[in-house]
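Example record

Each entry pairs one chain with its bound ligand, calcium ion.
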Amino acid sequence: MVTSRNIYISGSDEYHVNEVILFNREGELIWSPEMDEDRDVWFRMFDDGSSIATGFDDNSVRRFDQNGNLLWSYTADSKLGGISISADGSYIAAQSENEEVYLLNREGDFLWSYGLDNEIRELQISPDDSYIIVSSGDISPPRYGYKTLSLFDQTGELLWSYEPGYGFADVFLSPDGSYIAVESYSHVDESLAHEISLFNYKGELLWKYEIEEGEHIRDIAVSPDSSFIAVGSGWGGTVYFLNREGRLLWSHDTASAVQGISFSPGGYYIVAHCWDGEVYFFVYPPALQNSLGEVENLIILEEAKGFNVAKAERLLTQAKEAFEARDYQISRKLKLEAGQLALDIDEDGVPNIDDFAPGVNNRYIYLGGSVCLAI
Ligand SMILES: [Ca+2]
Ligand SMILES: [Ca+2]
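Structure tokens for the complex follow.
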């Protein structure tokens, strides 16, 4: 695991390990906590790389700084694991072995806990800290393996729960937290249909998409703008690419089962890695083409209001040329600049509509021959 500050953690699994070692970029050992060989540890790193939270098997969650100094420790009634940390580090959620969800603040103070009747599989804090989604599963017959999604607000109130059916796949949140994608199953005649289900954060099921018979879902990724969903399946191996409305835009068969799938930060590239070690790299230009069209409309609107958008138009033309040349990263950058320029033609940081002199940068307004600074 690599963090923004180039601190590396080595372990037997991504998050569930029996050894934690922090290295710096030069490969020097910074810290490794002393642990019994058979001891399991859950860990997560804070997004800014400043510290890690670990769940030890003495029922504690501990936060350490990047030099291994203990910042705090909180002890619960049973073992805590499955740690999730909010994007800004304000909250730490954990699941306990006695089927409770815990929420702590950044100082390690207990905020609340909630008992579920199911074994907790996974929990995640939404990117904006507004909710915690929990996936839990029945572990006893006759409902063995049936999964429930539960969504809590920050205060620990259960807002909704939903049973997507049999299954153990993870829960995937869109980067803005608006959508929740999950693997679900439906009984069709004698067999099980494997599906992707998309919910909004209010718990409304928006759609289901059934993947090919015999395949099962290994990984799901939601694009950074929450417009597209990529799904990788196992057994045969297929990459599915859906829009937010649940329509299949394309699919591609891979030579072996897909292990993981992700979008590039701009959202135009999709990377899938497979069981046989092959890595597939896909590009989806229509996503960029759509947003070029949106900027074009924006420019037309600002022009209709009487603003001089010539410079924005020139940038958009360059963005289209870069698109034609398949230089998508450059095209995206120019497109973003063209959009900003269309809304603020004199680049003084004040949108045209609020700007008392939309064609003149507000830092340089000439009055009676003297320069007046006005923001
Ligand atoms: Ca302006
Ligand atoms: Ca101005």
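The chain has two domains: 6-284, 287-343.
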